[in-house]
Amino acid sequence: MQNALKSKFQQKEEKSESQVLRRFRNGIEEEKTYLDYKKNLDKFCKHISMNYDQIVKLEIDILQNHLEDWVMSLTERGLKGVTTKKMLAGPMKFLDMNRRLYHKKALMGLVRENGNKSDEISGNVPYTGTDIKRMLEGTKKLRTKAIIHFFNSTGARPQSFTDPILRMKHLFIQYDKSGKDTGCYAVRIYDNSPEGFSENSKHGYWAFLTPEARNALDVYFKSRKLNGEVFDKENPLLVTYSKPGTGIVKNRHMEVAGIYDALELVIKSAGIERKKIDERFDKAIVYGFRKRFNTILKLGNSINPNIAEKLMHHKKGLDGRYLTPTREECFTEFKKAIIDLTIDDSERKSIRIEELEEKK
Q1: pLDDT of residue 15
Q2: What angle do CA 286, 293, 176 make, to 5 degrees?
Q3: Residues 6+ apart with CB under 8 A from 35
């Protein structure tokens, strides 16, 4: 009888635990983000020697004491504020999704801000052209080359491929005012139009691919077609490889975690130096491209600063809300940065020659 009651109690607790964890999981869209948050949630559980179910049943004062004690222990270990906040994100998201109250302002007040806010510590060091050139030379995979060129040319966030899924219908040949092919692609990012996608949609924003980046994507697309993939407007820009025995479906859209894995592998094989401080690197795997893109747009190219913000998908002041430049206006400004964004020296020379011929 006691064993039966114990079994029922254990089943009830396991069910409750799975429920609180399920709420936590359903509140996070990206698999990689969920895994990162859960890892830090598990560290918090280990610190206070409790499981998920026990945590959500704590009284608010006891819960607050545990959270503050954990923050102070992280600070005593010498972790910087940005790392401490990152480690707090998982437990706080877990508590928020399970409707548990805690004093967030008091908790964040204990976080020690960085004494040295240099770019290296905050992870703001951009990739150099040499870094990217070494990455391209360090891989033979056409998909990886396409990913590198895409991020270098657009400065997009990693979620640009998945929120929603970036498909062939979002990709357009960019023509100039006379109808001539500029050699570039225009791509509509974050467009999740409820009425269905169209080129004139008000959702999302325009980004562009240099001739060099466009060529890398075209070569990658050609290889997929040669391997039997039938293309239409719904094909994802990036797809998975099939791996026998893993259950991975061929030509399914590539997840953000897969993009990170592909880039991390090529960064290591290329021998790109990245300084690790606490749990972060000075050059972020994807955001290193975004930092480089932002720097090129805003230094020495006479690019309209408001449109530069649009190309970065930044919402800045009233211009961020009310300025709605056309695709052609955005491309006119992007075009000024093409030479600086181009990696291959011979490609850069050919662009300069073409510009001189146009001027003549």
Answers
A1: 47
A2: 125
A3: 257
Question: In three state form, how does the secondary structure of 113-149 look?
Answer: CCCCCCHHHHCECCCCHHHHHHHHHCCCCHHHHHHHH
> What CATH superfamily is the domain 123-359?
Intergrase catalytic core (1.10.443.10)
Backbone angles phi, psi at 249, to 5 degrees: -85, 130
- How many whole angstroms separate alpha carbon 205 and alpha carbon 156? 11
Q: How far is the C-alpha of 150 from the C-alpha of 275, rounded, in Å?
A: 24
Asked if pLDDT for residue 125 goes beyond 90, the answer is no
| Chain segment 221-260, per-residue pLDDT in tens | 999 999 889 999 999 999 987 655 544 556 688 888 889 9
If DSSP codes are grouped into helix, strand and coil, which group holds residue 256? helix
Taking the C-alpha atoms of residue 350 and residue 320, their distance in angstroms, rounded to an integer, is: 35
Range among 276-280, 322-326, 343-347 with highest mean pLDDT value: 343-347
Q: How far is CA 133 from CA 62, 137, 349, in A?
A: 53, 6, 16
What six digits make up the tokens of 166? 């970036």
Count of Cβ atoms closer than 10 Å to residue 282 Cβ = 19
- Between CA 186 and CA 174 the distance in angstroms is 6
